Every structure is written in structure tokens, then in C-alpha cells.
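Bench notes, afternoon.
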Amino acid sequence: MTISLKSRLALFTSKVDHQKWNVVQLQQGGYSCKILASYGASLISYKHLDYEFVEGYTQAEEIQNQKYRGVILAPFPNRVAKAQYAFKNEDYHLAVNREKEGLALHGLLYDQVFEVDSQSEERVVLSYNYSKKKQGYPFLFSLIVSYELKSDGSLNISTTVENQEDKMPFGLGWHPYFKMNESIDDLTFEFPPSRKIELDRSLIPTGNHLPFNSIPKTLDLSLHQFDDCFELLSEESIGFKLIGKHYVLEIKGGSSEEFPFFQIYTPKNRTSIAIEPMTCAPDAFNNQMGLMILNPKEKKTFSYKIKASHRV
């Protein structure tokens, strides 16, 4: 029996009920992490000893007020303008879940229940079979998400998509919020070579690109407010770093072919920063920027990792 989101929220008390909400915990030495399988395979905690690096969910009100912390974004990340697109000479209309701009936001799986296929102290494999053909996306696919906590404290995340039927458009993203137990205004932020995607007032790409940094750049976050999309320029391993008083947090992908785009967002409360890897730009179903077209039975895997280390 499928449990509605409203019913799942009702199971939340002052703290996450690990059994009813299917919270999976991984542990390696002084490092640990928690994944909320029953809500978008969301990463809700990544810690070294008692030091937390992820702003996740601990109670129901947080999900009601902020639906997208740490969740997997598929079959499209970010937004689709006017919640509509065309594919193979057919028009499709997605459900609008961002009323203010009248668009579709963050895919169709962010609030879905993922199955736990296997689990050990250091690794969990989760899966979701998209077979309901929701409004505006009739294409069938499966998603397998693996979280693996290594002995050095690095958390490796890989996602494999398999097209189950007809040729289909597809994009993938992840929506983690990172923190350092201090205001982000006290952090510095290392940025890989990138160019900025110009966005309109609805955060939809205009088609223009803006120069940002041609070499790695270190930013004082107190001087920046982000809700922007960037395209990586380097073909080498991608990497961002958050640098605080006591720790350095690295966010790394494979090559820029896997995640060539990143959305960077700083919430108004300045307690965290979202660093969101994406295979495509916002509105890729319409502008084709990074959009994948998967053939029947085609598989693709995408990976990235995070690692917290003491400052030397």
C-alpha cells in the first residue's frame, strides 16, 4: 500500500522516526551519514564526530516548509518553463508545482519512496521504478542510487538511470544543502573555472553566457548572494570547497561530462549553501542545454562525492 506524503508527515514527531520513515545510517570510524529513503533518497546528515555538514530534515515542519533538501532530482533538475515542452513532435504538459512562476520544479521523484535494495554499515543501495506515467512525462525508467561511506570519511554517491521503454528526454540532479555550524558569511568558497548562465526573473536561461572565472577562484561568501547556474569550463575533475574555521568540505564530481552544470543557492538565513550538481541546465527540456536523450534499455551512471577534513 502506498502511503501519501500527508500520512508520512503525520508519522513525524519532534524527531525523525527512523523505523517508520526508513532512515538508513552509515558509519565508518568517526564519520556517519543518514539517508531518508522514504523521501527522495534524501541525504539528511553527514557528520564527523558531532560536527554536522548537511542541513537535512529532523521534523515534519521542515519538509512542509522546504521540500527539496538533499533529494534526488529526476527526470529533470531545476525548472521547466511554463511546465511544458515538446519531444518528437508531441507537446507535453507537466503539473505546475511552482505556482508563482507557473512552472514545474525539481522533477517527479523528490518526494517519492525509494526501496532499500541492500544495506551494510558502509553502503546502501536504493531504487525507484518510475512506472506510473505521471502527467506530462509518460516515459518509463528506473533509478538506482548508491551511498557509500569510505574509511577516509568520503561519501561517494552514484546514480544509474535505465530507460525501460521508448526513447526519452532525461536530466538528473541532486539538491544538498551544506553547512559548517557557523554562518556561511564566515566561510570561503573555492570555485572551479566556470561561466555563468544568464537567467531571467523566473530563473530560466536567456541563452546568454556571462564570464565568471577562467581559473579556480576563492570567494568570500559574505560578499555573495547566489541563486545562479554555472557551466564548468574545465574537463578535469570538478571540485568545490567550503572552508571554515575548523574543517574543509570538498564536493567533487567525476568529469565535467557527467555534471557540467551546477546551481548555487544561498538561503536568506545564511546558515547553509546549496551546491547542486546537474547534468543539464534549467529548462533543458526546452533549450536542450545538456539534455540527454536515452535510447530504449540504455543505462548511464553519474557519480560525485563529498569529504570533510580537519584544517591543517
